[in-house]
Amino acid sequence: MSQPTQNKTTSAFYAQAGISFGLALLAMVVAVLYLPVDPWMRAFLALGTLYLTTSAFTLAKCVRDAQETSSVVSRLDQARVDKILADHDPFRSVS
């Protein structure tokens, strides 16, 4: 039986994702700092930016964990099917 192919993420994709995230967060922080508003409004926007950032990391971890779990379940199911097929002898007489 063929093994399921695993998607490998390239280092260039990791770099692009990290740089993109860093630039977006930096732009948001600079915008909050230089926004001509009262300090309490700036603090509210900064807190919102922090909350959005931590929520994005949490969501990414949850999605990754769900994908890994389904991958493990799929591999276990495939192993069970492989064992059943390996143990099956079509020429054995049924008694």
TrEMBL record:
Pfam families tied to this protein: YiaAB (PF05360)
Regions that span the bilayer: 12-34, 40-60
InterPro entries reported for this sequence: YiaA-like, YiaAB
Gene Ontology cellular-component annotations: plasma membrane
Source domain of life: Bacteria
YiaAB two helix domain mapped to chain residues: 13-65
Entry keyword set: Membrane, Transmembrane, Transmembrane helix
Biological process per Gene Ontology, one example term: DNA damage response
Name assigned to this protein: YiaAB two helix domain-containing protein
